[in-house]
Specification:
It is a single chain. By secondary structure, the protein is an alpha+beta fold. Helix content is 24%, strand content 19%. The strands form four sheets. Strands 7, 8, 9 and 10 form a four-stranded antiparallel sheet that branches. The protein folds into two domains: 97 residues, no CATH class; 65 residues, no CATH class.
């Protein structure tokens, strides 16, 4: 599977990208424990499995717990995976900021930052939501492609305006002044 943020290929042993730390899938883990020990605390019985690495963990090793509305099961993440993902994300963002070029178009200079994740991109990679029925004009943004897809409802996704569009450039200029 390919990462939607950095386009790297996921490793088979992790459900998050080992290049940028972005998670895009969960491992399917058993709902009940079968007497296994925690992978970090040998001799301590595990209470659940980490959905990011599929290893058994105890309550002490649990970092985050959520709920999947697709599979209707809890999504527990271990400290080791969460710490690793956060470090990978920090390094990835730092490298992108220091490079000075768009992560999707290596020869295009950075123009603006996504208002959601803060990453800088070229105009081709950013989009605004739009408003107006007859005369569409930029509303909120700019958003990078990943944030646009993840955070906005589908109806907003179909009504986007590229940051390269002259209407969006005018909105950016007005916002800066």
């Amino acid at each position: 599977m390919q990462c939607s943020r950095c386009k790297s290929i996921y490793a088979n042993s992790q459900s998050y990208c080992t290049t940028c730390g972005y998670f895009g899938l969960f491992f399917e883990v058993p709902a009940r424990m079968s007497g296994e020990d925690c992978f970090r605390h040998i001799g301590l019985p595990a209470s659940r499995f980490c959905v990011l690495c599929a290893r058994p963990i105890c309550d002490e090793c649990r970092a985050r717990e959520g709920f999947s509305f697709l599979s209707l099961v809890p999504t527990t993440e271990c400290i080791e995976c969460v710490t690793t993902m956060e470090a990978l994300q920090a390094a990835y963002f730092s490298n992108l900021r220091s490079a000075g070029f768009c992560p999707n178009h290596p020869k295009a200079p950075l123009q603006h930052s996504c208002i959601s994740c803060g990453l800088s991109f070229c105009d081709e990679c950013l989009a605004f939501t739009s408003r107006g029925l007859l005369r569409r004009r930029p509303d909120a943004g700019p958003y990078c492609r990943t944030c646009f897809q993840m955070k906005l409802p589908l109806r907003e996704f179909t009504r986007k305006i590229s940051a390269a569009d002259p209407r969006a450039k005018n909105a950016i200029t007005r916002a800066r002044s």
